[in-house]
Amino acid sequence: MTLRQAENPVAKLKVMCARSMHVAVGALGKAFAASAGHEIAFDFGTVGALQAKLDQGETADVVILSGPAIGKLKQAGALVPGSRRNMAKTFIALCIREGAPRPDFSSAEAFRRLLEGAKAIATSDPAVGGSAGVHLAKTFEQTGLAAMMEGKSLPQQSGVEVAKRVVEGKAEFGLTLSGEVASVEGAVIAGPLPAPFGQDTIYVAAVMASSEAKDTAQDFVSALMKPGTDTAWSRAGFERPR
User: Fold this and answer.
1) Average pLDDT value for residue range 172-180
2) Are 65 and 99 within one domain?
């Protein structure tokens, strides 16, 4: 037992985390818990859904959310000062079925043509509050494509479901966060969407000021970023921000 472990007895942590990160954070978090004997309860959800819980007074030891959501918590004084760490970066990806030819969507014009020629496109439902669905709905409205997409979109409750509809052949391709595509067998990330349709999202981890196990919570955050974890993140469809 290290001095650090002796100073921090077994703890029960609650981690509220963006759902797109469930594969990497779940695996790395469980490894951390097993190595130190801690217990971790994960609450994975869309950033919008988790933000609503926090607004209603729910709390956690660690939060891993989008930068703006973490910024809101910081402004409210809900975070331990200096505990914020940039965790991982994801992007809105075009998802295709394994073995399918990769379409051309290298420019905004090519992506528009791809949308126009498709019959069924799986998308993240913006009503659920996921960042990809919200951003795309707004961008389709701004670019005059909303009416066309209304007849083609197959809105899904999560990015995982988006990828599953593509694998099942119910949609020609899907549009959702890369981290969610990577968790579905048979789904392939064809690449990031071009501007203005694409959007990178950097997720940030922080310890909440209300935590009764702040040191252990900070150790948990550090464990997600320690050397040797890059492979777990890349396999889950994420990049480590510089």
Assistant:
1) 93
2) no
